[in-house]
Design brief:
Low-confidence stretches: none
Distance between the termini: 51 Å
Shape: elongated
Number of domains: 2
Structural class: mainly alpha
């Protein structure tokens, strides 16, 4: 005998129920995303580190049979000590030093006045320089991990990232199975997206960090040899500038050479230019050629446009996520083109086959 609840007729058709279900899922996902908006970089960072460390995890756990939890904890400690702490220290050093220059513009104004005397043009004043530096400090504080954003907030992000990464490794099979089950793509498309993710992470994390580190060290040594003050600080700046395609480290050693030339230190200025043009820029091209096949070959235009897009959306993680978004967009366009072509051929085949069939009697 039906219960009273079963006698009640639902006012929605099955199609309306389906549409409302999707609407509810999208709405709840949007609320969750808004609630976790301040910590979304933790989950994105965990995904990037998962791609970076997974070959090590597979080699130690699946091939050599090591304990899964021990390997995972070892990878987390390695990530914290070797990647997170140094990168955070560099970011803090950069933001704090720019804040000092923003508060005291005496040194910068002295350099600019010397350039004005050499060129005969007056192109700046102290107030505009102070305003520009304050804007740069504010921009960097929003995009680099800094104590200006709150020590507790930063600690929560790092802890959440490592906590997420721990479960991604310890429950690797279930995590990957869930991706394959719930992502709305065919297996071939998932394979293409996975290859794109791997290539982007390798090219823009492993490869670019290595290239940036080498260029930063060479820039710092060059500036120290030719007597530029604060060469260590400018080497740190060169590390971050090296992530910007085309421009890169010339934004650091170029002004340093101009400064030396403006101070009548012609030999030092020319020396910086020669080392920058011959060694520092060419080491970038050489390393990219050597690493392209092993770490993923990403077109420079995708990297440049992706960096501009990603940094504004995701902060410092946008250096990786921006090019990844553009790469995924291109992959999905190719998938759509292929699927559309297959459907057109299928319709044409059915139409041709229908035309050859004898009429019904």
């Amino acid at each position: 005998m039906p219960t009273p609840a079963q006698d009640i007729e639902n006012i929605y058709t099955p199609r309306q129920q389906y549409i409302l279900l999707i609407t509810c899922l999208v709405g709840l996902a949007a609320l969750i995303f808004m609630g976790l908006g301040g910590y979304i970089t933790a989950f994105l960072g965990a995904g990037i580190l998962f791609v970076v460390f997974r070959p090590w995890f597979v080699g130690l756990v699946h091939q050599r049979g090591w304990n899964r939890q021990v390997v995972t904890i070892g990878l987390l400690v390695f990530a914290f000590v070797v990647i997170i702490l140094p990168f955070t220290a560099l970011s803090l050093m950069l933001v704090d030093r720019i804040r000092i220059y923003g508060q005291d513009t005496t040194q910068i104004m002295a350099v600019l006045h010397k350039i004005e005397q050499k060129t005969g043009y007056t192109f700046t004043n102290e107030q505009s320089v102070r305003t520009l530096l304050q804007q740069a400090v504010g921009w960097l504080s929003q995009r680099l991990p800094s104590l200006a954003t709150g020590l507790l907030h930063f600690t929560v992000i790092i802890g959440l990232m490592l906590f997420t990464l721990y479960f991604m490794f310890t429950q690797e099979e279930g995590f990957l199975r869930g991706l394959r089950r719930y992502l709305p793509f065919r297996p071939s498309t998932l394979h293409e997206l996975g290859d794109s993710l791997k290539n982007n992470v390798n090219a823009n994390v492993l490869g670019q960090v290595l290239i940036a580190l080498v260029q930063a060290v060479l820039t710092g040594i060059t500036l120290r040899i030719f007597g530029v003050p604060d060469s260590t600080f400018w080497g740190v700046v060169a590390f971050f500038m090296a992530f910007i395609p085309v421009l890169g480290t010339p934004l650091v050693w170029g002004p340093a050479a101009i400064l030396k030339l403006a101070q009548n230190h012609t030999g030092q200025g020319i020396g910086i230019l020669v080392v920058g043009l011959v060694v520092i820029m060419n080491i970038d091209n050489l390393l990219r050629i050597l690493l392209a096949r092993r770490l993923g070959n990403i077109h420079p235009l995708i990297t440049l446009a992706g960096v501009v897009l990603g940094v504004n959306i995701f902060g410092i993680l946008g250096l990786v996520l921006g090019p990844l978004l553009l790469s995924y967009f291109i992959v999905l366009i190719k998938v759509f083109e292929r699927e559309n072509r297959i459907r057109q051929r299928s319709r044409l085949h059915k139409s041709s086959a229908g035309g050859l069939l004898p009429p019904a009697t």
